[in-house]
TrEMBL record:
It comes from Hoylesella buccalis. The keyword Membrane applies. Keywords: Membrane, Transmembrane, Transmembrane helix. Residues 223-292 form the Protein FecR C-terminal domain. InterPro entries: FecR (IPR006860), FecR_C (IPR032508), Ferrdict_sens_TM (IPR012373). The keyword Nucleotidyltransferase does not apply. GO terms for molecular function: sigma factor antagonist activity. Residues 86-180 form the FecR protein domain. This is Anti-sigma factor.
Amino acid sequence: MKIDKHLQTLWEEDVNKMSEGELHQALDIFRQNRTIYSRSVRRRSRVSTILRYAAIFMLPLLSAILVWLFSASYYANDMQLAEYYVPKGYIDSLVLSDDTKVVINSGTTIVYPHSFSSHAKERSVFVNGSCHFEVSKDASHPFVVHLGNVKVRVLGTHFSVNSYSDEEQVVVTLEEGSVNVSDSIQTMTLNPNEQLVYSRTAGTMHKQIVDAMAYNSWVKGGLNFTQEPLEKILKSIERRYRVSISIAKDVDSKRCYTMNFKKGETIERIMNVLTFVSGDMTYTKDGDRIFISNR
């Protein structure tokens, strides 16, 4: 397949060194030869521009997609990509062509091939947000989840990833089997009930022991927080309940809390529990806007 000469020049200059503008330029040219299909919970329509990713993905994930698009396996097999977006307030699921089951959390986008090619070395997908995977075993074709500059590589297992572009950390939690998590310079292996936390700013990885089933209770509609900072808890609540939460300057957003909510809890119930547990916070609600302050 013939590749546009300008696009090839950008690639040869090393995609990892490109500016955001150069990446978008390359993607703009690439869209002339490819069509990406877009599906969402509320609407399922075809779109003909890859530039939409600029508003969805951080630069590292744009780079990861572009690297993969230029790979020999992609061009050899002429794969078509699908984009699945789950809006805030929803949880949805899909089954990939290899029978891998994916549960997709609120405010998450996953990009994947319509059909995994038997000629490709890997089964690659790209995630911005939170997903739970039950990967179909295929020893000849490892399953790789791209989270910006972090990759999760497995053969067949159950695990979750949390990699929202507006959060500083990437979190990988393993239920069954084994996974390798890596960036450009380091690799760690996870065993069941281990969780890897990657810092985007520091580029560091560390592991910790967790109750993976409890952590992944969101898959069944619950919410579980174990020593999570308030700011992260509030982001999860915003995505799940489609609300906007702001806090007063004197509220400690770094303070950690442990709470567990079952499926079906109302936003009022959750806010009442949160403010009660804090001992010193209160909140007001006006439509879909919530304001938290100290008493």
